[in-house]
Design a protein that fits this description.
With 194 residues, the protein is mainly α. The protein contains twelve helices and no strands. It is globular. The structure holds zinc ion. Zinc ion binds next to loops.
């Protein structure tokens, strides 16, 4: 069963249903939220998305509302604090990668203005090229992580199945935003009516 099919059978209010209907495949214009999604995708490596979604609130609190300016300056004491937090994923490599990546986001913002703008500035790469680019800039970015991150933020098409009610509106959104690259469409505009 595909993720779309699985989610659409769930009752409204279920975390997967909400994620599928209101977040998955939808662009994130806010850099802190964008970095937050990146954190979640990195932490999913080797685990189920279910575990990550259930801990999203804890992640958000533990990582200062995904404020990469703060995360970039995390000390060894912060790493210890996170390693003791049962609400998140206590994996030192993942935590250190997030801190490193926060610094990289700051560097990219100096050049491109925003993390979002950096991602949007990159055109038509295949997965392999995307992974290469991510590996050049970030840590803990294997093929699956990069692919899922780009699906989840609507940069790569493929989040939703063709028969999913989210597919067509997002395809349209994808095409429009690729044409008017930096226009500000609301990311909460689409509501699944299935
Ligand atoms: Zn779907």
């Amino acid at each position: 069963m595909s993720y779309c099919e699985y989610c659409r059978k769930l009752p409204l209010g279920n975390i997967h249903r909400t994620y599928h209907d209101t977040k998955y495949g939808i662009k994130i214009y806010d850099d802190h939220e964008l970095f937050g999604r990146f954190i979640l995708e990195i932490n999913q490596a080797g685990l189920s998305w279910d575990i990550i979604l259930k801990r999203e609130t804890e992640f958000r609190i533990a990582f200062d509302q995904y404020n990469f300016e703060r995360i970039a300056h995390y000390s060894e004491a912060d790493v210890a604090r996170l390693m003791n937090n049962k609400g998140i994923i206590r994996n030192r490599k993942k935590i250190e990668a997030v801190i490193h990546n926060a610094n990289q986001v700051i560097a990219l913002r100096k050049e491109y203005g925003t993390f979002f703008a950096w991602i949007e500035s990159i055109e038509s790469k295949n997965t392999e090229e995307w992974v290469k680019l991510f590996k050049k800039n970030f840590k803990f970015v294997g093929t699956e992580i990069v692919k899922e991150f780009l699906f989840s933020i609507g940069k790569l098409e493929g989040a939703h199945e063709k028969d999913c009610p989210m597919f067509l509106p997002l395809k349209k959104h994808y095409e429009i935003t690729h044409y008017y690259k930096f226009s500000l469409f609301s990311s909460t505009f689409f509501i699944c009516t299935n």
